[in-house]
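Sample intake sheet
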Amino acid sequence: MQELITLLDGLKLPIHIPLLMHPVAVHFAIALPIIALLLEVSNIFVKRKCVGVISSLLLFLAAFVYLAAFFTGKNDGSEAYSLLSAAGKEELKEHKMLGIYLVYGAAAIFILKLIFAAISSRIAKIIFTILLAVFVGFALKQGKEGGQLVYKYGANVQAVSAMDDKVMELEDELDSCKEKLKKDTSAAKSTPAPKAEEKPVQSNASSEKKSASSSVAESSSEAAQSSEANTTQEITVPASPIQEKAKEALEQIKGAAQKMQNTLQETTTQPLPSSNE
């Protein structure tokens, strides 16, 4: 059985299948077996040969419709698979597997129809009708799961795909924000907190600054006192002989200048002789 599944799954058609053709094929794949089932139920009581022939034709057509539904669903599913969530992907895989079983089941139902039609007994018709009803039940289950893929997981729905893309982008941004927050918290934890022992160090530094300033003030006061002492020493130092001679010469020059000024004043105050004399 696994070989048959692999054979059908790996089979590729030489023609291009357009997208969104699966819903068209699915409607016929569900409707044809149901109509054939109603015909078989009526044929049990009516016993008309034409009813059995029509049922056989519908089942023969259903075998090809199920094959078309499988390939169109495979094409649409491969397009929607990457956009589905994890649960949607699992649902799509199960839907595909049941579709493979239904393809072989449709072919088996048609072959059984030919076999039981050759027997032409009422019991054979009842048994075939029961088998066909079971097949219709699985076909309806497959249709329900396909509806869940569309309406619940948004397979091949453009609006849902766009919303999924936005949700994925927002989730990526949220993850990046969380990572950045973790890095910031780890960096904050790695930085050491200020220790209580630093305060006395600061007090020591301030005391050192105070002692340095006091030493500078003391040195400046000492320098000022030494400068005052030097000036007093210069004042109290006795004058040298050269300085004394210079002072005497300066006093003599000042005295001579004063005498010359006095004589000039006397000469200017005397009256001039008149011309009559």
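Comment: Residues 196-206, 229-237, 272-277 have pLDDT under 50 and may be disordered. The radius of gyration is 61 Å.
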